[in-house]
Every structure is written in C-alpha cells, then in structure tokens.
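REQUEST ID: PR-0412
SUBMITTED BY: lab tech R.K.
PRIORITY: routine
TASK: structure prediction, single protein chain
INPUT:
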Amino acid sequence: MTTNSEMLKKLTLGVEDTQTVCIDYDGVEAELTLRPLTSGELTKLQVIEKKPLEIKIGMRNGRRETVQTNANDVNVNTGDFTEAQQEAMYTAVALSLSVGEEKFKPDQIKDMRAGLPELIFEKVIEISKLSDEDLTLIKQFRKDE
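STATUS: complete
OUTPUT:
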C-alpha cells in the first residue's frame, strides 16, 4: 500500500523524473531521456507563446477595465505569433532534454534538422501530460484519429 508521502514524492519529482522515449527520424531510431516539464516551466512557456498578443486596458471612473473591441479591431501579426510558438517549442524541448548535468539551450534545438524538434516536442507533450488548454501550440501536434 502506497502512503501519502510516497505518492507525493512520486508526483513531485519535478526535474528528477525522467523517461526514456523512442523516436524515429529519417529511418533512424533513437532513444532519448526526457523529463516532464515542471509547473514553473509551463508558465514560462505560456508567457513566451503569448508575447505577441496584446490586450488593451482602459480607465473608466478611476478603475481599470479591459477595452472591448470587435474582431475587426484586433491586429495579430501571424509571423510574430508563429515565431513565439516556435520559441516556446524550442524552449520546451531544451528544458525536457536537460537531464542531470546535461543542459540544452533553445538555440541548440533550433539548430537541429527540420522536423526533429517537432518529433521530440510530441514526446514532451505526452510525458508532461500537456493539453491545448496549457499551450495553444499543442493544437498543431494533435493527430487526426
């Protein structure tokens, strides 16, 4: 029988929790050791992803309030939005690959061959148990069933 403290220890391993995953890239199978993202890292990724989005806050009678706009008033630069999502993905992969003494930076992930960061990110999503409520970027990685 598992005690509460044993269960909490297992659930809160954070960066100590690792899993070995297999990926197949260009006909080459590779085993990688990844770790799930922590709650704090998820918050960091959410900030990166939402960087290009702006919400205007107005003042009325000395109180702050969100300015209501219609869809025609909203300008979103899709290039900036795509760049922010890619930066969030590269950061997530770098964090997940950073196990023990091995540390990776997002720029190292960015320099990988095209398609490889995406394959690893799919595994990061899986082991971190992330959903598209956590990051909108994840919607791109959903497989049609």
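NOTES: The two ends are 38 Å apart (CA to CA).
REVIEWED BY: pending
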